[in-house]
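Input (structure):
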């Protein structure tokens, strides 16, 4: 991390989230990242926003049971109905101070109204 800021979401990886070798499932991590990005999108859209796309993700390091996972988000682009958010996930062992980048991706959300139809982000 190059700058100090609060994560969009922070969780601890638990045994139910792992395979038989103690590595956390990639799908679990993707879900945490989507959740963090969704919080950011909802604040920016001032209402409901849904995930419509996610750019390819590469895993740089494993997450283990007990690791703290922090997800950082940054809005990259706001269109009429869409929001593109850069998401980066870090892991930190419970007894250490140093965090390691695990993966990153770009998520695209669309703001929707009460009927599920796209609406203007600023409307």
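Output (sequence):
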């Amino acid at each position: 991390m190059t700058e100090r800021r609060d994560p969009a979401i922070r969780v601890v990886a638990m045994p139910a989230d792992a395979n038989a070798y103690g590595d956390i499932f990639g799908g679990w991590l993707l879900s945490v990242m989507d959740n963090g990005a969704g919080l950011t999108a909802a604040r920016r859209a001032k209402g409901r926003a849904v995930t419509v796309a996610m750019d390819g993700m590469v895993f740089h390091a494993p997450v283990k049971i007990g690791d703290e996972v922090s997800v950082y988000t940054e809005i990259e682009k706001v269109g009429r109905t869409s929001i593109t958010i850069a998401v980066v996930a870090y892991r930190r062992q419970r007894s250490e101070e140093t965090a390691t980048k695990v993966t990153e991706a770009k998520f695209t959300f669309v703001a929707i109204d009460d009927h599920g139809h796209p609406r203007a982000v600023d409307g």
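Notes: The first helix runs from residue 26 to 45. The chain has a mean pLDDT of 94.
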